[in-house]
Amino acid sequence: MPEPETTTTTTTTVTGRLRKASITAADAILNFNPQPGMWAATGTAIAYAPTLTELREPLAGGENIEFNEHGHSARTVMKDEGGIPVLSLTRTATATATQVVQPEDLEKQGTGTGPPQRRQTLAQQAETEEKHNWKETLGNGFKAAWRFVSSPTGFLMTIYGLNIVAWGAMLFFVLLGAAPAMNHPSKDALNSPRKKWIEIDSQILNALFCVTGFGLAPWRFRDLYWLIRARRMRNRYAMKRLAEQNKAWFRPPAWYFDGEGGEERGVTFTGEYAPATRMWKLAFVVWMMVWNTLFQAVLAAMMWGFNRFNRPTWSTGTFIGLGCGVSLMAGLMMWWEGRKVKKIEGPAVKIVEREAQTGHFKGGGVAVGERRDVGVRGGG
């Protein structure tokens, strides 16, 4: 008689594992922080795009410009034995000098007999009088653009944006009657190729808008929940989640850092910290994203619930305009605030910790001191 008992135990074990796996997957999805929308991703990407000055910098920019998971320009740093961040893979490539920033050099700071010196910021570590010439600067710009497009977020943004531009432009020109061959038997005939292509373009654009409007809806309403808890209850955990989601442009209020259990500020490239962002700006962005989903739901109902013969003529243009408008305003807010944050704090910082004794980075790289065998362009 032990067989039924064994079968029951096995079934219970399998069920428990499936339940645990489903809970883990749901938690991972909810903890994931995608960009809230296409315009939001575009706004912050532009705000953090490398400037001409950065492209000319041999150490702080140039070939060392990278992009993080959200497509924002970043610089990689490592932590030394004392937990202090130092630049990694920072080598000049000018026509007159070659220099590598070594952690040992930074450790020598403040070891003299005088008063202790303030440890250099990442920006100060990369200071140099040398600049790339215009040919190298142009090459660095093309390399940075390729790195952006090659990143997962940059690739998706490029493909999605090109589709929106292409189908939107086609709809625009068809509406203007730019293709007279489609006006058969007449321009406004219901069965004319022009009317059919207007419907095709509109349905494709609606589907593209549904990708972000519905695909990002769970995270948009999650952010709304955290916003209510942060604003009404001053919940520190809710504010932490919002700060992580919007770290490219939003800085939390003082109460988030003060008092027992307050959060520590992260590492910035310049060593400076942007002032706290007004909470109404965060609320504005979150609500605009929610309204984008709601307007998209109405647009989808109009596009799928009616055909092109009985659909109200005003519905398509109205809700496309409303949906794009609220998303655009959120993106503009994120761009405006993001550029102010970058102006103070510098580009984003990617911290790569070095494993003990080996000198190798976690993730496949090697310590700065181990990069002496990498070819560097020098000059005489």
From TrEMBL:
Residues of the signal peptide: none
Lineage: superkingdom: Eukaryota
Keyword terms: Membrane, Transmembrane, Transmembrane helix
InterPro entries the UniProt entry points to: DUF2985 (IPR021369)
Pfam families attached to this UniProt entry: DUF2985 (PF11204)
Segments passing through the bilayer: 155-182, 202-221, 282-306, 318-336
Chain residue ranges for the region called Disordered: 98-127
Keyword presence, Membrane: yes
Tagged with keyword Transmembrane: yes
Protein name: Uncharacterized protein
